[in-house]
Amino acid sequence: MAIDYRVLWTDSYSKKTLQKLVNLKEYSIIWKQFSQNSGLGEILEASEDFALPYFVDGADKKKFEEFSLDSLSEIHLLRGILVGYFDQPPILDTHIFKLKSKTILMDLQKHFAFDTMENLILNISAYIRNENGDDTSFQALLAGSEICPESSKIKFDCCTDLYNLLARDQFHDKGWGKKKLGDLLQQIEISEINTEFISQIDRYREWLEQN
Asked: Is the dihedral of CA 176, 181, 182, 184 positive or negative?
């Protein structure tokens, strides 16, 4: 997929500091604008101009802020789609992005040689958790549960991140989080989950009943 990586607009997220976790990388979401008539616009059959989210952290974020980042790559786009899926940046309309996000992810799945969309989302989310914390990987998995709604494994990992955030009292909206945790747990097909993790599902349910 030939993409013009020139950055036209940015949205930097202020992340909460996790006191018990160290060396987590702060990140920014960069929204790159594309013309409907661009090469990518034609490939995606976009009905109007649109924007896509790119995720930068660590050294790339520093370079971007210093105007020294040479280019954005497929991995920036992949993480940006998952973490920025529910973003609502000012001025920009994201509905074309939402409509085309799965198509783009299918292309990226081939690019990174993952056998399934599910494995792509699970692996990239695990990487994001390690680099940026479980509040960020939760966003990626929540997006994954909407993009790939048939995956109980994605929903289980999403529940795990959400449970941990709630249990640490580090989720921004506890009422919404508890409801979402309950909804996701109901959607999980136990037969699709590794048997060694089933006890965790029971623990999440027990926690909800007690809280």
From this structure: positive
Q: Count of CB atoms within 10 A of residue 78's CB?
A: 23
Q: pLDDT, tens digit, for every residue of 56-72?
A: 999 999 988 888 888 88
Letter for the amino acid at 126?
Answer: A
Q: What is the pLDDT of residues 166-195, one digit of tens each?
A: 999 999 999 999 999 999 999 999 999 999
Alpha-carbon distance of 35 to 46, in angstroms, equals 9
Among 133, 135, 210, 207, CA closest to 173: 135
Q: What does the DSSP assignment read for 87-117?
A: ---SS---HHHHHHHHHHHHHHHHHTT-SSH
pTM value is 0.87
Question: Is 112 a residue whose pLDDT tops 50?
Answer: yes
In sequence order, the β-bridge partners of residue 33 are 51
- DSSP state string for 130-179: HHH-HHHHHHHHHHHHHHSTT-HHHHHHHHHHHHHHHHTT--S-HHHHHH
> Taking the alpha carbons of 208, 153, 198, 134 in that order, is the dihedral positive or negative?
negative
With 0-12 / 13-18 / 19 or more C-beta atoms within 10 angstroms meaning exposed / middle / buried, residue 125 is buried
For residue 186, the SS3 value is helix
Q: Are strands 50-57 and 9-12 parallel, antiparallel or unpaired?
A: unpaired
- The CA dihedral of 178, 179, 182, 184, to the nearest 10 degrees, is -110
Q: Which residues contact 176 (CB under 8 A, 6 or more apart)?
A: none
